[in-house]
Structure prediction request, 496 residues.
Amino acid sequence: MKTIESIQNKIIKERSKLSLKKERDKSSLFLVEGKHMIEEALQAGCLKELYILMGENNPFSFEAIYCTQAVLNKLSNQNSDAKMIGVCTKPKYEDKEFSRILLLDTVQDPGNFGTIVRTAHSFGFDAIFYSKGCADIFNLKTIQSSQGAFFHIPVIQADLREKIPTLQKQGISIFATALHEKSIFLQEVVIPERYGIVLGNEGQGIAKDIIALCEHCLKIEMDTFESLNVGIAASICMYHFRYTRKEV
Amino acid sequence: MKTIESIQNKIIKERSKLSLKKERDKSSLFLVEGKHMIEEALQAGCLKELYILMGENNPFSFEAIYCTQAVLNKLSNQNSDAKMIGVCTKPKYEDKEFSRILLLDTVQDPGNFGTIVRTAHSFGFDAIFYSKGCADIFNLKTIQSSQGAFFHIPVIQADLREKIPTLQKQGISIFATALHEKSIFLQEVVIPERYGIVLGNEGQGIAKDIIALCEHCLKIEMDTFESLNVGIAASICMYHFRYTRKEV
Prediction:
């Protein structure tokens, strides 16, 4: 049985750096906490190392390294008293042709980003493309909010200014969500076979030149002129495109 | 010009206790931060005291007390470096007869609760009733997520086991959101004139005996068997009940 009792352990010190984006980018590794997330990582073939609190059972068919709570807290870089932590390799996605796509322009809040990924997977979307300015998908907060959905749905960083024209050439209609003069209400949208929906930044919305690339602009009906949280707006659009029955 | 420079100031020490729920309950006061929230409080007639950082302008027609940053941080009980803080009286709501109602059973996360209140106001709901086990609506996190929408829509604590039968006697149909054997899909719901929608706890859903009180159970369509965040589920239901056009 492998054990680690010292927070000075070299591998723990190394892995604890994974709380930083630049270290995750460099190593293509990231951390997950808790049984559910580790299970997801294992199923996806992404689990590389498993650290479990001494005295706890190992519910996985994967060799564990048993650690003190101090070592686990050092590893996670927060005093969350996690009982199990997984070190994962980033999932590899096939960038094939998709039909139901979400595109995120500078969605900065990790909680919003994660929730959107979780909902997109639930609603059977094929892929998410996100701009460089978005939160990191492998940030612990994003991961928790996503409930690990990114193990199932491709979440791919892309330059939306290049990706949108590429998708359009594949026959995919792109809809911007924006309070634009040419915006129509969500209920008025004629939903095509293959589509991409663009959501924007929490404060600024979608960049103007990205809106200009989209063939369609839509807005969500509201009684009072308030803004919606971007996760809420994304979910309502996805649900409507996917499930609302049209008697045409 | 009134100023406070000492964190030992009696009123500041007193007001700083408002970060605790029991103090808010006792005094019927709560704190808000930032220009937008203070504006909302002022318009709603709920602003009682206004504290602004020395050297900043007062954009409100309301007398300010100018404070050092240390005093403002003491007041807010967090090192958020807020430039303006309002002490507010809790809004008084008329408990009249409503037609579009949300009922929350033990929604514990302040961010979820606040987002639901914000969306309910945007979608023209009349009132929210929430059980004792929910997050506190006057918690700073709930307030921020709600964007102050509770100044516009009644958010009332209630015993749902009493409130649901009362609403039913008023002719309001009550829908539980639950993965129950009698649940029908959201798209199949025949939407009545007056309705209440019940949402449940993040982990446990709605308590069984509360589900039993509801005439209808509904579930949201999904491609993969995942759970949805309660704020997302609430918003999709509200949007659908409010805006989806039915060609019957």
